[in-house]
Amino acid sequence: MDGHAMAVGGAIVDSGNFDWNLYKEKFPGLTTPDASYHGITYTEKFGKSAYITKATAQMMRDLGSIQSPQNAFLLNVGLETLHLRIPRHCENAQRMAGYLNDHPKVAWVHYCGLPGDKYYDLAQKYLPNGSCGVLTFGIKGGRDNSIRFMDSLKLIAIVTHVADSRSCVLHPASHTHRQLSDEQLIAAGVQPDLIRFSVGIEDIEDLLADVEQALEQA
Length: 218
Description:
Elements: H1 28-31, H2 42-46, H3 50-63, H4 69-79, H5 82-101, E1 106-110, H6 120-126, E2 134-139, H7 143-152, E3 157-158, E4 168-170, H8 182-187, E5 194-198, H9 204-217
Parallel strand pairs: 3-4
Antiparallel strand pairs: 1-2, 2-5, 4-5
Helix pairs in contact: 7-9
């Protein structure tokens, strides 16, 4: 929603169509009396509004899950351009995924918009207007070559963010998961060479050029 790494927040989107009573033993907070609110049972009292009523009436009261005015303002500003940013994210990521998939120094690419990807058919079914702006890939030569690639980037930022207007990459093996051995990484489902790439909305030719020169150093 923000798109510029200025604020952290989120939104609850609830259609009210989930049948909480069908699995009532799993959701006692909604399907049994709430002693803190005069013994009401949310599913009985509020029907389709049970979940969102509990979230605002009880959870917000108890946990204080409410944004500051400044953060709410920043997210609202970001939302004004969301419909413009997302198509560009998807378009750039599709181009980048295809480029990486054909590059001789790249070992593998995971992106649901690529034909042959295990999620490709689902992406075509559920995301016909564009899949997403995030992809992962690995560089031949493993962890060390991935680190050299990261160190050689000039335009693309090395940060943990995703869905920013700027392109962001992360190499978990040398950053967020650097305490783990290669064996532990693989057991956790993280390849030592894995690079997560959140493709931004910059000019795609500039992004391709930056990746190309970094791959030459890897």
